[in-house]
């Protein structure tokens, strides 16, 4: 599926837009000034495939901490800034790779000019983030409620400021907690602006709620070729965001090197403690960068047949299970060996297909 054609924006060595690849990103929920905790969270995100991470910059301590954080991580960093242009300048001085700031909200024109000049000099792009819940007062009053048209009007005001300063390394987002409004706003944005779009449903809630809302809204847009970079917002551990986004991109045929875990829902025939095995293997697969189908089936009656299309599978029985590879039963295992053997087989498969 070909993406909607947009301008290419460079974020360090990453290219957003102008291609068929959708960049996966997340955001730390640590205080940026707490360097040790922030670095640990970024490294955990790297391990599960995150390509770009955003940091909240609330004060100068946060801005100055970016310099030390960058020394210890391996993916580009985005500074999330509201209202204070001096924080943007400090982040540029600290080596930030991208800035999220709305130029219409940082005061006098000279403030915007200072930020733009600094970003131009260091080739740092700016993301303009439009949220349906925080539109300008006059736009909200004109439309009476958050609308896609109002969000586009708000974006245009900010975009025009940057374009007037001959700045075009722009990324746009149009987020709402309403999935249908997200779809409408991004569709309209794709027709209106030449810039790459950052997809997201904001305030999407817990893991289950976010997975449903984000898959409904962002899956629709991705299948229409809209969207160049994506963040799934989850209340909790940001690593969970990557779990959802990787599967979403795989389902949309936009990411191939992602494992697929098949697990039956269980029924009265299930005679072994299946759930802990499924959970542990699901977590383990987040660290595997390979197109592999792994099946964990609840019984030996239907399991072998249902798992025949998997690369590696287990069909459980009474405290034991059958190890199956490419549809062929290889051996019988006691339950306490299932996890270690599955992990070993997955690693062997990944190594074989990486070479």
UniProtKB/TrEMBL annotation:
Pathway: Isoprenoid biosynthesis; isopentenyl diphosphate biosynthesis via DXP pathway; isopentenyl diphosphate from 1-deoxy-D-xylulose 5-phosphate: step 5/6. Pfam families: GcpE, GcpE_C. Coiled coil: none annotated. Binds 1 [4Fe-4S] cluster. [4Fe-4S] cluster binds at residues 264, 267, 299, 306. It comes from the Bacteria. It catalyses: (2E)-4-hydroxy-3-methylbut-2-enyl diphosphate + oxidized [flavodoxin] + H2O + 2 H(+) = 2-C-methyl-D-erythritol 2,4-cyclic diphosphate + reduced [flavodoxin]. Its EC number is 1.17.7.3. InterPro entries: Dihydropteroate_synth-like_sf, IspG_bac, IspG_bac-typ, IspG_C, IspG_TIM, NO2/SO3_Rdtase_4Fe4S_sf. GO terms for molecular function: 4 iron, 4 sulfur cluster binding; 4-hydroxy-3-methylbut-2-en-1-yl diphosphate synthase activity (ferredoxin); 4-hydroxy-3-methylbut-2-enyl-diphosphate synthase activity (flavodoxin); iron ion binding. Residues 260-346 form the IspG C-terminal domain. SUPFAM superfamilies: Dihydropteroate synthetase-like, Nitrite and sulphite reductase 4Fe-4S domain-like. GO terms for biological process: isopentenyl diphosphate biosynthetic process, methylerythritol 4-phosphate pathway; terpenoid biosynthetic process. Residues 6-244 form the IspG TIM-barrel domain. Keywords: 4Fe-4S, Iron, Iron-sulfur, Isoprene biosynthesis, Metal-binding, Oxidoreductase. Its cofactor is [4Fe-4S] cluster. NCBIfam families: ispG_gcpE, PRK00366.1. Belongs to the IspG family. Converts 2C-methyl-D-erythritol 2,4-cyclodiphosphate (ME-2,4cPP) into 1-hydroxy-2-methyl-2-(E)-butenyl 4-diphosphate. This is 4-hydroxy-3-methylbut-2-en-1-yl diphosphate synthase (flavodoxin).
